[in-house]
Amino acid sequence: SNIKYGILSVNGVLIYIGLYFFYFCSNLPFLFHIQKNIMTNTTKAKSTSGKPCGPYRCVDYFDSLVTQGFPGIDTLDKIFDHVFKKYEKLECLGTRELLSEEDEMQPSGKVFKKLILGEYKWTTYEEMNIQVSHFGSGLAALDQKPKSLICIFCETRAEWMISANACFRYNFPLVTLYATLGQDAIVYGLNHCGVTHLITSIELLDTKLKGVFSKLPKLKHVIYVDKKSINKAEYPEEIQIHSFESVMELGAKPEHLSVSPSHPCSSDLAIIMYTSGSTGIPKGVMIAHSNLVAGMAGQCERIPNLGPGDTYIGYLPLAHVLELSAELSCLSNGCRIGYSSPLTLSDKSAKIKKGTQGDCTVLKPTLMAAVPEIMDRIYNNVMNNVQEMSCFQRKIFKFAYNYKLGKIKHGHDTPLCNKVIFKKVKSLLGGNIRLLLSGGAPLSPTTQRFMNICFCCPVGQGYGLTETCGAGTIMESSDNTVGRVGAPLMCNEISLRDWPEGGYTEKDKPNPRGEILIGGPNVTMGYYKNEEANKDYFVDEHGQRWFCTGDIGEFHPDGCLQIVDRKKDLVKLQAGEYVSLAKVESALKKCPLIDNICVYAESDHNYVICFVVPNQNKLTLLANKIGVRGSWEEICNHPCVEAQVLKEIIEVAASNAAKLERFETPVKVRLSPEPWTPDSGLVTDAFKLKRKELKKHFINDIEKMYGRS
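Structure (tokenized):
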């Protein structure tokens, strides 16, 4: 993302004169900075028991937890019946028109497909309501029964949301699977839940499903969402293949449409959402209508002025609870959703033809959710471009950045800086973003503050899990702190449970710490066909359902939570020290040479090693500097390059920003020429590391680095 043309280009003398003039003028508050309503020092949550361990509740809903966002509306189908009537003429779901596709040859010899896209085409709430009715009626005509499971295995798109709402209305519990799953995981998920009906896309049908139909004995109907025709003769006779349009046409027939749907009750199962499987086989989380209704109520309350004036850009996997709950919450308040993908998001995205516009530029969203990995990439790309600027341009950027940083900490905004210095950066996401929300994993304070400053909007962290419908905490938009995830939502409360083995207790100073337990109506029914895991993770006490997260939290005096560790990420070294793998990875990601990193340690050794996906541009420059030439793979495997990378890692680890102990600092490194993507199976769709899979992938290197081969 090139931002250097957004910085003033003048000669050196004028720059310095301009800096002094700008500094003088910027301190005239009535002209150049405005006071914002900040709540940093206010109490946002407190313990209901008076004990340091909690449970903590939001002070505005201290006496009782909220179960519904709309009084008397306790199921998802009732919410959307209400929404469709209230906002019927407003735009609802948008998809960009595909104008053409072109093959583009890369310098490496690879051919990438580039897209030329047009404007967004919109469906109104009224039109979506009709599509939902027709598709649900069509599924019923295809013998889909109420309370019988149906699976959606598809990329994020408008048809995904239409299908989901049809299932909610007709009481077809929806099973979700990530579109990036491998064939073994697909077979496991479909057979584990035993579905007879599957909604998918032509691409997934051809690349992932065609070869496994023989292993899916219960599957009878497959519906593809694309507006294309396929050769049904290529598929087994016992499986009926239908287009999305044909199912809607079937459902629109009077004899089918006249049959009233079997509406769910609040305790009925709405979704079985399979987790990302970062620690093993994915678990199917059973989510009732009442769980999602409560979770959405809590999330919507924390987003100020959420309503028909907002446009949300949907590009994360809808099979992930973060994206699904965000989109449902937006639709329930009359927002419009424009669909995108990680490969078409910006003007510089991989599938966007050079010279044409990415989805953010065309849509100009006001709301956006992202996982930390994506925000870290934006941070690194922008900072790399800053380093390529002239000396004077860098001085201006640094001056403006530090100036705004100081103002933000005192609750001020800087309209002049925003308009002159950061306008080009802000335009990368369309220019209209008013709130960025990060979830899925902890966001580093450095990245959070950077996004806050350069994109000129609040950047809040949220904390939740599939098992809590994505709800737990969300920062208030007026909270200008970083590194925290906010106070409990109005739908749940949070307790801390001592974990003495890891050194976390409620008696810790300055603040109580412990394992995070979330309780409330948003806590789900448990894992599908997995009683052993249910006993380990879910607890019912005093009429309240609790989920034991395995994450370690710390409550600050104002009632806001900070995620400080994860039980499964702690490794005890031979000498007795505990290493937090995630903490070390977060600190070292600020090394310019690193795009991604996995830290590894074993209890029978006294040192840490790491595996790194290097930044290709930075590493190539480094290799050239030390006289190493060759292919990208040869550069990554060269011992001199590895040694130089390790040297920079050690320097970053020892810096004041990282403050890593010597035993936490990796002593050996292995460079990975291939990036880690969800398709490779080494990270989840939220880009969390799959440590088990990474260990298998690098097992030979681990053996060598620990001297066992």
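The first strand starts at residue 34 and ends at 35. The two ends are 43 Å apart (CA to CA).
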